[in-house]
Specification:
It is a single chain. The protein has one domain. It is mainly α and about 260 residues long. It is globular. Helices cover about 65% and strands about 5% of the residues. The chain has a two-stranded antiparallel ribbon. The two termini are about 30 Å apart. It contains 11 helices and 2 strands, in the order H-H-H-H-E-H-H-H-H-E-H-H-H.
């Protein structure tokens, strides 16, 4: 019964995440959703900014704390190990849903691209950013990343082993392509409002801080291998040469940096 419940819980957490992920595409772009990043609600700008900062802060704290190895070791004393990742995904998704629901728009315009060709190019970059986000998860282990592999193995009484990754595709060019995709998607808009700018600035700041925290964990865990990877591949901008493919070089980074 526990195995069946854990499996259903993992599947439900994943399905809820998918719904939140799809909504986020419309939330940031303003297309196809009832409430977006620029939906005016009459909240004064200062109050709106404070509310938005709190909402983003809640997500940042939860996401960073629950990703730390020390917390996970403590947390799995109370939560079965096979649903630890699914619980992380579910709580992150719930906080994102709360942000979408309670976000307060600040509609004052910062910039607006009037050229149809320019706007089309920016929307193309926006779509590219989300594609990079999605495909980056499949370049590692999508179902492990979102907790489904863990509950599936537990249901079959198969011991869980973290997947090993050889650096491939985008992970040979930047260490954090998933985060690069988010940055592109958050900034690529032909009509940047103050509220959208606040969202982009705070999210990018959190991404950069979160990467630093995560890489400290990865260096402690993997030592020289990860240090060598850091020397050869840039963090988030493709400024250095891709590292050479090697059959005996396994990259722990993709799984770690995105947690």
């Amino acid at each position: 019964m526990r195995k069946a419940i854990s499996l259903l819980y993992g599947i439900a957490s994943y399905v809820f995440f998918l719904g939140v992920f799809l909504y986020s595409l419309g939330f940031v772009s303003g297309f196809g959703v009832p409430r977006s990043i620029d939906s005016a609600d009459g909240t004064p700008a200062l109050a709106a900014g404070l509310i938005d900062c709190v909402l983003l802060g809640l997500f940042a704290v939860q996401h960073s704390v629950m990703a730390r190895p020390t917390f996970k070791r403590w947390w799995t004393r109370f939560v079965p190990g096979e649903i630890e990742r699914s619980t992380f995904v579910l709580l992150s998704s719930l906080l994102m849903a709360l942000l979408f629901w309670q976000w307060r728009a600040i509609p004052s315009m910062v910039w607006q691209v009037g050229s149809p060709a320019g706007a089309a190019a920016i929307w193309a970059a926006y779509c590219l950013g989300w594609m990079v986000v999605l495909f980056s998860t499949f370049m590692i282990s999508h179902f492990d990343f979102f907790g489904l592999r863990q509950v599936w193995l537990a249901a079959r009484d198969v011991p869980y082993r973290p997947p090993e990754f050889a650096t491939s595709l985008l992970y040979r060019v930047v260490r954090h392509p998933l985060m690069l995709g988010f940055v592109i998607a958050f900034w690529a808009t032909p009509a940047m409002t103050v509220g959208h700018l606040l969202f982009a600035l705070l999210s990018t700041g959190y991404i950069l801080v979160g990467i630093q925290l995560e890489e400290k964990d990865l260096v402690r865990e993997h030592g020289v291998r990860y240090e060598e990877y850091r020397r050869q591949v840039s963090m988030i901008l493709p400024l250095s040469k891709p590292i050479a493919r090697s059959s005996d070089h396994h990259d722990p980074a993709p799984r770690g940096v995105s947690r």
